Amino acid sequence: MTKKVYIHTFGCQMNVHDTEKMYGVLLQSGYQRTESPHAADLIILNTCSIRQKAEQKFYSELGRLKSYKKIRSDIKIAIAGCIAQQEGNNLFKKAPYVDYVFGPQNIQVLRSIAGKRPPYSALEENPDIELHDLPAERDDGIKAWISIMYGCNNFCSYCVVPYTRGRERSRPSENIYAEVSQLAEKGYKEITLLGQNVNSYASDVDFAGLLKKLNGIDGIERIRFVTSHPKDLSLGLIHAIADLPKVCENIHLPLQSGSNAVLMRMNRGYTYEGYVNKIGALKNVIPGISITSDIIAGFPGESDDDHVQTIQALKEICFDGIFAFMFSSRPHTRAAAYENQIPEDIRLQRLSEILKLQDEITLRKNKAIEGSVQQILIEGTSETDKQSLMGKTRTNKVVTILKTNIPKGSLIDVEIVKARKHSLEGIPLS
Ligand code: 5AD
Ligand code: SF4
Question: Is 335 helix (H, G, I), strand (E, B) or coil?
């Protein structure tokens, strides 16, 4: 009988895409996908360790799996992703009912997982990683994520990623080109290039060169990319984004803090003034660009004044949106050992101040495009309102329109008639 696999994904887009690759490999090896863990012969938890909260969610899910194994002892349980890499064989001690542990650099082991005898782990650093040769099993049909690089060399002092995903490696551009061409043939319209630091992509071409190559693929209408690092965002790249018609006017550029003292201790490699200069160049060269960011509240040693500088930065830059997080102490990282860790109540208070201010700014920015005409790519029925279709602007803002028979994947012009904090309401122009 065909074996069934269920994957529970925690964390970021990178992990969601890794899950697509895990399904891809397993389907090729004869497994069938199931949406019910109860029906599965193999359950994989694809874990995230970027913050403690993600880790806690994983451990409570892991606890639940114990009862599955009691009911069906033949079920196999695998832990994948960043916690697998971080904890390694310890996981077998913490949860003896776990069968396999493999890190994000070892997804290829799934090709032969049925033949491995538990407990089995694959945790090697994998510099010649061939993840790009793993087929991704995508659901959507319109939008696709594509890995262009793996790992990170930046060692921001708070971040666990360089320890779990290893050193930075860029995928050959012809390989990326081939994957995107295949997606275009299947009818995909939008691609998002994924990497921890896409600006430092370095293969036979640099990142601007890669964008130029991909811009030439017929059928692909929109090209996006995440994440950019401010220190590697050159003027040349900004011009490339402006000049290439398919590359969307949107950038996610994590600032993390408005205080130079904090940025220095974070090992970010730029000052606030340097960051603001790049924002100026982006706005000058790419009219209408939307800019989003990440902010960390309560980094070790962050004084009241440092926090006020972050608040000032948000007011000065006016991001279109941000993701803000309370600092979370992570294993191996330098910041975990820094003095003056900030108590949780203060971290929380600073975080809520940041979020409240940004909510006002986001709404103001959205209101500013009321009355404008925007192109949206229809993604399907809105998740929050089944009477509406949902699409995104080139600037990555969510727009809902009253449901019509416009098919998924259509590019249409809409007039923005109402702005809300998290979405815009539009009316299609015939
Ligand atoms: N604590 C809080 N936020 C973190 N991030 C990364 N590591 C931590 C941490 N230890 C945030 C950063 C990064 C985003 C992906 O997650 O803001 O840009
Ligand atoms: Fe982590 Fe910094 Fe690398 Fe981003 S650039 S993954 S925050 S170390």
Answer: helix
Burial of 26 (0-12, 13-18, 19+ CB in 10 A): buried
Q: How far is the CA of 252 from the centre of ligand 1 (A)?
A: 14
Q: Residue 408: what pLDDT?
A: 96
Answer whether residue 127 shows pLDDT above 70: no
Q: Is the pLDDT of residue 291 over 80?
A: yes
DSSP codes of every residue in 167-187 = S-EEPPHHHHHHHHHHHHHTT
Q: For residue 188, how far is its CA from the centre of ligand 1 (angstroms)?
A: 31
Query: 63 C-alpha vs ligand 1 centroid, how far in Å?
Result: 26
Q: Is 11's pLDDT higher than 70?
A: yes
| CATH code at position 380 | 2.40.50.140
d(CA 101, CA 93): 12
> Cα separation of 391 and 379, whole Å?
5
The pLDDT of residue 430: 72
CA distances for 44 relative to 37, 70, 145, angstroms: 9, 17, 21
Q: Among residues 221, 282, 278, which one has the least CA distance to residue 247?
A: 221
Q: The domain containing residue 401 runs over which residues?
A: 373-428
Inter-CA distances, 14 with 76, 149, 192, 332, Å = 24, 11, 11, 21
CA–CA dist 252, 213 (Å, integer): 22
> How do residues 140-151 score in pLDDT, each as one tens digit?
899 999 999 999
d(CA 369, CA 409): 23
3-state secondary structure of 251: strand
Give the residue, by CA position, lying nearest to ligand 2 atom 2: 156
Distances (CA, A) of 293 to 64, 228, 229, 256: 35, 10, 10, 8
Last residue of a domain, one of 90, 122, 154: 122
> Is the CB of residue 330 below 6 angstroms from any atom belonging to ligand 2?
no
Predicted confidence (pLDDT) at residue 132 exceeds the cutoff of 70 = no
The pair of structure tokens assigned to 41 is: 């012969």
CA dihedral 38, 101, 82, 89 (to 10 degrees): 130
Asked, for residue 180, whether it belongs to a domain, the answer is no
Give the chain's domain count. 2
* Residue with CA at minimum distance from ligand 1 atom 9: 328
